[in-house]
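User: Sequence in, structure out. Go.
Assistant: Echoing your sequence, followed by the structure tokens.
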Amino acid sequence: MPRVASIDVLRALTMLLMIFVNDLWSLHDIPLWLEHTAAKEDGMGLADVVFPAFLVIVGMSTPFAVASRRAKGETTQQIFIHILSRAFALIVMGVFLVNGETINAEATGIPRWIWFPLSCLCFILIWNSYPKSISKTLRIALRTIGALVLLIMLIIYRGGENGSEHFTTSWWGILGLIGWAYLAGSLAFLFLGHSLLLMIIFWLGCLGINIANHAELLTNASLLRTILSPFGEGAMPAFVAGGAIGSIIFMKYRENTRRVIGILLALSGLFCAAGFGLRPLHGISKIQATPSWVLICTAITYAVFAIIYWLVDVKGKAAWFDIIKPAGTNTLTVYLLPYFVYAILNAFSLHYPEVISIGAVGLLRSVLFALLI
């Protein structure tokens, strides 16, 4: 099945924004609405919308990816294994990057600024899609080197102020959360995606678990909470399932442009209304992964996709986005690149001049940085 240009463009735009908001830490005196909202504050900034939008796009891509693999003759078992392997890779990446945030450089013997690019280099060695011109022996050797280096890093890692903490999963990191959400949402589509109704029921189930969690109905269910914790107590797979539902609808009515756009915008309005309707109960919060945040961010992504679909696929303006096209097709590589850039800056003790780290000029610098990446 051919790629859908509008999904690639939406993914590229989302990744561009992700690189941009991830660089905001290096700026000051910038508008608060661009940044993350505090955990207990009712609201969200631009940075709080980007990650869930990416999860919705993961869900949107899933029906097309599964259909493409089936068209190549792959069985359900083969697709199942593929989903498990991709989820495992993302979870491993997420955990290694998270541990880098609390590394004790002296106790570990590796400074933080080296930990990140070294981890990313190993990720590339292990999970890179090597060209067929490279021999199988060399591919195995490179992947083995990457895996062994990660294993050594895991063993020698020490974290915390006194260096007493070992490698752990304090949380899963952005890539890890994407991995868990992808695992749940993709497996749900693999086994339920033949029915729009069943996918909607799965989505409602995820949202229901999220609502129950915030209503403190899961407080005494420690085992259940442990199982659901990597999935954001239902929030993360709800985004992926929501994206998959959007694509199922898109695939069903694709020949009728007005109907597709109309349904997506109508659902966007419905989700937005439901999100604000639930807001008095638990507020809007990314950090707490509240139901309102899930619904409103899904609504925003649906609406933006409808606009991009009209612009790219209907009006044929895909060329407008050529400058960021790699971010839509080589997304993980783009996400990892800033770690190498920041490492180079650290290695040579380079710092941005104050004049380009403040206010509007600083924001322009971060935009240019994101475009360069």
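User: And one key feature?
Assistant: The chain has a mean pLDDT of 92.
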